[in-house]
Specification:
heterodimer; A: about 260 residues; alpha+beta; Heat Shock Protein 90; 2 domains; five-stranded mixed beta sheet; 5 strands; elongated; B: about 220 residues; mainly alpha; about 80% helix
Chain lengths: ~260, ~220
């Protein structure tokens, strides 16, 4: 091989052997930039999640306050008014009747105290969630059932295998509250069926009512409302999916699947 | 005096000066040791020119320098890998093979013939280490600003130099006869170019290291 040929081969090969590491270095740069973008996106998602979590906490508190307000006005307020009336109507001259009224007043006061205790438990919202999601839902259902307008069945299948996820529990609880609020406000339902199922790495929640229903497939944007959008958005934040099946006159079935824990 | 100022010695001395300015106060002993390594490099290069002119054989100097090069470069790679995992054991097989080839080379060809096979093996090893470091870098979850990362630029220089000199190592004997100018053969010219790339990257990495130390002091 002539010197000139060797020279050309060596120069070309060296150039190629220089280009190869240049590509590797460039690749590391590009990959690193992507990594930066990914980290920023992750941080942004965490911020969104945190702010949504705080919002959810506030909404749960607000709902609790509303329940307390309504209960104070409709239940405890009435009981105390009745107690006051009963005590005012006591005639001391008629001892037998007076005793009956005093007994009635004692009974009313006792019921008020019982109601107040229940309210006290509700006020400790954090403790409610600390009992776990199934218990928190049961508590919510108890309050709804007290109104006497709804027949509610609630079943739980399985249990969380790898412990609870308090953040997801809170968001899921708020979703359930919103669904139940929608049923109370718009569905005119009498029967509500709630089924919660812990699957492997997933929790599935199904809420069915026998209300007036709506056309879920062709719901106009203005009627879609914040409620349904919020449910979808919140479930999305914790990586879940919401399926809404409803037809006018045939009730509504909402299924939520969320990766868990 | 000026006859010793070749492109190689110029860039090596410049890099050595950068190392003195940027690394003297560095808290990391491995980075600080680069000053010593570059001092040895400059001495070897100048001594190489001197003995080349005087005795027409300077291979024994580069044979000695090969050991110094292996020690310092391995030390630096251990330090780089240590950021991700314990790596002392990882470089031992490479060093052991290096020692075997080195001794074998000396026994076969003597002290005055350059140990080219060992150098080629060492180059391949450093290319592998550099690529492994980049692998660790991209698989790490943490983000590092590469533009000012001393480790990244030190490895870049090493990768460029040892990867691109493979061709020269393979054609070593043939290239000695291929002259580019009346006094310089092709191997010399290519190595001068690669040295410029290597020491420019290393000088920049020392500057980055200085910035990093300053930033740490401020914070």
């Amino acid at each position: 091989m002539a010197d000139e040929d060797v020279k050309n081969i060596v120069i070309t090969a060296t150039a190629i052997f220089l280009i190869a590491p240049a590509f590797i270095v460039a690749y590391v740069f590009v990959y690193n930039r992507r990594k930066k973008r990914h980290i920023e996106e992750k941080e942004m998602m965490k911020l969104t999640f945190d702010s949504e979590l705080i919002k959810t906490q506030l909404e749960v508190q607000e709902q609790t306050m509303q329940t307390i307000g309504a209960d104070l006005h409709d239940n405890i307020g009435q009981l105390l008014s009745l107690t006051s009336l009963t005590l005012n109507s006591i005639e001391l001259a008629n001892k037998t009747k007076a005793q009956q009224k005093i007994d009635a007043a004692i009974d009313l006061t006792g019921r008020s105290i019982k109601e107040m205790r229940l309210l006290g438990k509700l006020l400790q919202g954090d403790q409610l969630m600390a009992l776990g999601l199934p218990e928190a839902i049961r508590h919510e259902i108890n309050w709804m059932q007290k109104s006497g307008h709804f027949e509610i069945s609630y079943t739980i299948t399985g249990e969380a295998q790898e412990g609870n996820n308090p953040d997801k529990d809170l968001i899921l609880f708020r979703i359930i509250q919103e669904i139940l609020n929608n049923i109370i406000k718009h569905a005119a339902a009498t029967d509500i069926n709630i089924e919660m199922e812990y699957l492997s790495e997933q929790v599935k929640l199904e809420i069915t009512d026998n209300g007036i229903g709506f056309d879920a497939d062709n719901l106009p944007v203005q009627q879609r409302g914040m409620g349904l959008q919020n449910i979808q958005k919140r479930a999305g934040i914790i990586g879940g999916e919401v399926t809404i099946k409803s037809k006018p006159g045939e009730g509504t079935k909402i299924t939520i699947c969320i990766p868990y824990p | 005096m000026f006859s010793y100022l070749t492109p190689n010695t110029f860039i090596e001395i410049l890099c050595f000066l950068f190392a003195i300015v940027c690394l003297t106060t560095d808290k990391n002993a491995v980075w600080r040791s680069m000053i010593l390594y570059l001092l040895f490099t400059c001495i070897a290069e100048i001594a190489g020119i001197y003995f080349g002119r005087k005795t027409h054989n300077n291979n024994w100097i580069y044979n000695i320098f090969l050991v110094i090069e292996a020690c310092f470069t391995n030390l630096m790679f251990v330090s780089l890998f240590n950021k991700y995992h314990k790596s002392k054991l990882m470089v031992i097989p490479g060093l052991a093979l290096f020692a075997i080839f080195y001794v074998q080379g000396l026994m076969n060809h003597g002290f005055f013939v350059y140990n080219n096979f060992t150098y080629t093996f060492m180059s391949v090893l450093y290319v592998m280490y550099s690529l492994y470091y980049y692998y660790l870098l991209i698989t790490d979850d943490r983000f590092i600003n590469l533009k000012s990362s001393p480790e990244f630029w030190w490895t870049a220089g090493t990768l460029f130099f040892y990867f691109a000199n493979t061709v020269c190592n393979l054609f070593d004997e043939k290239l000695e006869e291929v002259m580019v100018t009346s006094t310089r053969n092709l191997s010399y010219v290519i190595f001068a170019g690669l040295n410029i790339i290597l020491y420019t990257c290393w000088s920049y990495s020392f500057i980055c290291r200085k910035w990093q130390t300053k930033m740490l002091k401020i914070s």
